Fold this sequence. Notes:
With 206 residues, the chain is an alpha+beta fold. Helices cover 20% and strands 53% of the residues. The termini are far apart.
Amino acid sequence: MEFEIKNGRYVKEYDYENGKVIYELNKGTGKIKEYDYHKGFLLYEGEYLNGRRNGLGKEYNENGELTYEGEYLNGMRNGKGKIYNYSSYKYYLQNEGEFVNGLKSGKGKEYNEDGNLEYKGEYLNGKSNGKGKEYFCHISVYIGEVKCEREFVNGKRTKGTEYDYAYYDNLKKYYNDILSKKLEKEREIEKAKKEKENEKNICFII
């Protein structure tokens, strides 16, 4: 089996054993597969319109692993999509959100390799731009807690509020102190009730 590729796009699939073309892209429109010209691995599968990626599709690396799935327009990532990555030991969702002309633009989220949310906010031209929140995602007691709420310009933090571990340590200690005092008070009340009941029982026996 061989493939015919023009300008990096898959156009025909041949089955030479039977001597015929078994698939041909009709005027560049329909569902299609693109293969790497030199190594032959699957690069893209999805929808085409007028010879370009348009609609829903998926991208793969040379190991056959999914790297992107989502919407396309005029050959580029446009609309909602998800980016996947591979660490030394696992496959995970790295980004999800909106894309414009192949770059993250609009609302989106970033995750670490353990699946914990790192960032949620706005993007422009592939970088954090506008309002966003960063989250603690590595220390178990703080996972899911907001690390900072800021405005971003070209991926850099500007004005906003930054939280640190001391803040959460003090906050945790504060609530633990309240809980301890509440439990202590409840124990004292329960102890007083039992002492009164014991006094009644003693008086009844006499």
